[in-house]
# Entry
Amino acid sequence: MPRARKTTNNLRHFSPETFGTFIKTVRETQGLHLADVAREADVNRQGLHKLEQGLHLPSIRTIEAVCHQIGLDPLFAIEKGFDGLSGTASARRHVLEGRLAELSEGDLSLAIDFIDLLLARAKPAKRKRKTGSA
# Structure
C-alpha cells in the first residue's frame, strides 16, 4: 500500500517582502504614486505602504484591487511572492516583458541587439590559462 505523502504548508514559502517589493517596483516603474493607487483601489494608504514593505499579508480583496490599479494579474503577482528572484528583479523583468511585447518587429530586433551589447559588456573578459607542458 503506498504511503501518503506528507504535505507542507506552501504559505511558509511565500515571501511578503518579495511580493511587496514586486508590487512597489511595478507601481513605481509605471510612474504611479502610492497615495493615488491606494485611493483608486479603495485601500488604506498606510496598509498599501506596509504591503509594499512586506510587513503584513494583505487580504485577497486588497491584492486584487491594487493589482487592478497597476495593471497586474493578481495570480501572477501572488506567484512572484513565491519566486526565488528578488521582488525588484522580478518586477523589472515583468515590466520589461510587457514593454517588449508592444514593440514592432524592427524595434524588437534593435532592443535585442542592445541587450546583447549590455550582456557582453557585463561579462568579464576570459583570460587564457597558461598550461604547463614539458
Remarks:
- The chain has seven helices and no strands.
- Confidence is low (pLDDT under 50) at residues 1-11.
- The longest helix spans residues 105-122.
